[in-house]
Amino acid sequence: SRYFTINDYPQGTPARELFELHEQALPALAEDEVRIRNTWLSVDPYMRGRMSGVKTYIAPFELNAPLEGAAIGEVIESRAAAFPVGTKVRHMGGWRDIAQLTGDQLEPLPAFDVPEQAYLGVLGMPGMTAWTGLKRIAEMQEGDNVLVSGAAGAVGSLAVQLAKAKGGTVVGIAGSPDKLEWLESHGVKAVSYRDRDATELTEALQAACPEGFDVYYENVGGTCLEAALNTLRVGARIAVCGMIARYNEATPSPGPSNLAMILIRRARMEGFIVFDHWAHYPEFLGEVGPQVESGQLDYTETVEEGLERTPDAFLELFEGANRGKMLVRL
Ligand code: NDP
């Protein structure tokens, strides 16, 4: 098995040299173990938090031990009756080509007629996050005006489409011209945050939706949050999903100076971790799965080729190189 480790807990933006590729012979299978050849690896922004050496809502990665992450693969050897050779599974033994796990660490793939890697993106954790934040946290209602930051990423690209399907004005904030174009092609008003301070971004958001927003789906933090707070309607709800603009900061920067807008607009801002809502995964699949299968929902992917490129794929998340879900194909 070839796998990646990190050799330190980085301050600021991680350097490529942080990641080391190792090779190790795997022991013979024990009772209830399976060996899996991974076909797709997921890289996700939350992994940066696990590289900080402190426990947040999840334990930190161990130094010089195989990194973990969501992956999809095929069982190639099995001593677990429920997972015979040839079964396609999802599990957390990513950042490696061959994983050896026990049966209770594996999930069979749901049965929609979609490419298997969709279960790492639009029908996996990021998709479930978009649906949970919009529906269960922000309690989006028919006709609400919705603002989404990080709008062309894995979570954001589903959030904007689910919001759009319920009417109202949907505005997406993203970083590059091709992302803005993709958003516009789905009827989403697109606003760039690049080269704009909070005042300029506020003006751009007000021009896109003069009425203001009932829901803000927060993926980015910083300037995006500051501008979004200025555009809230009375009774707005903010689903705090993530704040990626902050993950690589070596020293915390001051928060939005206008946090009091929550009070003035009687808005509700609520953080959530998708895993707490996982009991609703079947409900999410029942609703979103058929729409992905039929092509009604668009999901884009950005794919890096080969295990060696896994750290690069991860680091590119912080440069905005991905549209839709960032994946590694083995
Ligand atoms: P994305 O596919 O959205 O990839 C990250 C994107 O973030 C980049 O493409 C880039 O897009 C944008 N970005 C990166 N750095 C910055 C920056 N400094 N300022 C503004 N934008 C930046 O990732 P995911 O969809 O997987 O995750 C989106 C958010 O959701 C993250 O904050 C993540 O932590 C969070 N999350 C939370 C979960 C929960 O349970 N609460 C579960 C899953 C994800 P651009 O080109 O537009 O800048």
Average predicted local confidence, pLDDT: 97
The gyration radius over C-alpha positions equals 20 Å
Q: What string, H for helix and E for strand, traces the elements in order?
A: EEEHEEEEHEHEHEHEHEHEHEHE
What is the fold named in CATH at topology level of the largest domain? Rossmann fold
- What sort of overall outline do the alpha carbons produce when their principal axes are compared? globular
Structural class: alpha/beta
Reading off the top of the CATH hierarchy, the class of the largest domain is best stated as Alpha Beta
Integer tally of domains? 2
Low-confidence stretches: none
Pfam families: ADH_N_2 (PF16884), ADH_zinc_N (PF00107)
GO molecular function, one term: oxidoreductase activity, acting on the CH-CH group of donors, NAD or NADP as acceptor
Keywords: Oxidoreductase
Protein name: Enoyl reductase (ER) domain-containing protein
Short description:
This protein has 330 residues and is α/β, with parallel strands linked by helices.
Notable features of this structure?
seven-stranded mixed β-sheet, binds NADPH dihydro-nicotinamide-adenine-dinucleotide phosphate, six-stranded parallel β-sheet, alpha/beta, Rossmann fold
Explain this structure to me?
By secondary structure, the chain is α/β, with parallel strands linked by helices. It folds into two domains: 2-121 and 300-329, Alpha-Beta Complex (Quinone Oxidoreductase, Chain A, domain 1), CATH 3.90.180; 125-275, Rossmann fold, CATH 3.40.50.720. The protein is 25% helix and 25% strand. The chain has nine helices and 15 strands. α7 links the parallel β12 (232-240) and β13. α2 crosses α3 and α5 packs across α6. It is globular, with a radius of gyration of 20 Å. The structure holds NADPH dihydro-nicotinamide-adenine-dinucleotide phosphate (NDP). The site of NADPH dihydro-nicotinamide-adenine-dinucleotide phosphate has 31 residues, from α2 and α3.
